[in-house]
Amino acid sequence: MKNINFYIKIDAHTIINDYILADKINYLQHRIIVESCKYRQGLNEYVNLKNSYLENFAGKIQEAKRKAKELGIIHCDGEYITGKKSYGYRITDKFISLPTHRVQCRYKKLNTRIMTIKRKEYENLSKTNRHLWKWLLQIVCNHPTIDFIQKLKEKYSKEQIETFLFQIQEINDKNFYLQKDGFGRVHSNITNFYSPFREELTIKEKRLKEIDISNSQPLFLLISYINYNNYNKSINKTYHHQPPIYESRISNENTLISKEYSVLEDHESVVFELPKDIQLFKELCLSGTLYEFLMKETSFLGDRKEFKEKEWFKFLYGQLFIESKLKEVFKELFPNMNNYIENIKQKNYCQLSWDMQRSESHLVMEVICGRLYKEYPEIPIITIHDSFLTYLEHIDIVRSLILEEFAKIGIIPHLKVKN
After folding, report:
1. What digits encode the pLDDT tens for the residues 377-393?
2. Can you list the alpha helix ranges (DSSP code H) found in 236-378?
3. d(Cα 355, Cα 338) in Å, to the nearest integer?
4. Tell me: the pLDDT tens digits for 113-135?
5. Most exposed of 295, 310, 316, 401 (fewest Cβ within 10 Å)?
């Protein structure tokens, strides 16, 4: 049986004689370090660890937590909110500066338990996700140059840089994960990987190139809007939550207005014309200039990245009562889209982001990656939510397939190749 390895700062076996307890303490360190890496936090920050998750893998864990705190290995933030927040843990200052290294799990029962859970997780993956897993296992990351690390020091703390470098270590150690969330999105080491390091990723010693969908969030907002309105028209009633995404087809490929959608088997297809403001929104999305247009209309003085982080995200994903210049301008320019956003967020402001994630995961994972798996199994493919990593010589195939599937819902996105 394969041995499970834990990432640790201090081997608990060198401090206590109880090998079962020592391995559980090492497992706790491992989870803190790995979760910090996953969310790109410094090891000096607290990581929320759900007790039920820990016990699913390691069995009873309370004694290990108590002993690890007593030994000064971990510290707890003492903050717990029922149904909202688990206790947060971090490595203490006493051990945080020690190098992160790996040790084997000595407790055979714990090793077997973790291996069994990992095997079941793999068995529960869809065929498409198993295909992604196959390519994920082959990724290697070149180590960044000393000059590059020096530049990082100008922007990030020592703990954050350690986290970024640990991400590389995890990849090269083959400590991979691939998880599907409740909205169908796939998360892996690469989706949370520090983006400037992506150009150092290779498979079989060949660098990977990234093909990205420009203005992807507004695009998936548009797709959610279209599906929502077609569903409502097909059943002729108000529907307060986005239905599942269904296969669609274009009635006239030469028009950006009339589209025919097959929504549900027991409802007739409907023709839904996009209002003028939605047509404008669509044209700006397809040209990749929506953010620049809104920046100009709101007289925003920062750059594109600042606009997205400070204005767009707050408007799109924030609560309805939050006022802003962007909200005023958007309501005036795109009244139909604004009505849709407010309607969806009426009961729960998170609903819009959930619906957009479902739209994205359906098209990217089920449709596009599904086709790549079936039609081009030899092409390496790694997803980063709405972008794809592959070899340079396969970019044209992947690009064509993305455009084909978006065209079926009347959208021709702007694609750009990075790296």
Report:
1. 999 999 999 999 999 99
2. 276-287, 290-297, 304-307, 313-317, 325-333, 335-344, 351-361, 370-375
3. 15
4. 999 999 999 999 999 999 999 99
5. 310
